[in-house]
What does this fold into?
Amino acid sequence: MAVTAAGVFRRTPQERADQRLAWERADQPFFAAGACHILAWVCRDTYPDRPIGLAGLRFAGQSQVFHVYATWADRAFDHAGWNPEADLLAANREFERRPLERIAIVDDLATFCREHFSRMPHQYWGDPLPRARDYVNRHAPPWE
It folds into this structure.
């Protein structure tokens, strides 16, 4: 799957207002915008024997993260599957047309959600965890 900037899939105002409408989007848009953090944590938890990290993107000088993804070596996993992290960063920079910062995420999911105004799994219209597990399992990891 080709690297695509997360912003390509931003939710519409109607999708932001209606959790069911947001839930009913196809998997790639759902995990690109609105549930990327869930997908990243599930990816890390799927491979406990691998040193998978978590990273976030934010606009330079701002504290709010707008996209979260999993990392392993020089690879990144997000809505576009496993790709070189440099390609993911370039695609997002090009789409956003403003400087971005990559940050390492070391918090647990609850702390991250609280600090970045993101939803916990129980706050979605449906349970995103099985959906995220299925999505992770559809994308072969780079070490295989």
Observations:
- The chain has one domain: 25-137.
- The chain has a mean pLDDT of 91.
- The longest helix spans residues 85-96.
- The first strand starts at residue 53 and ends at 59.
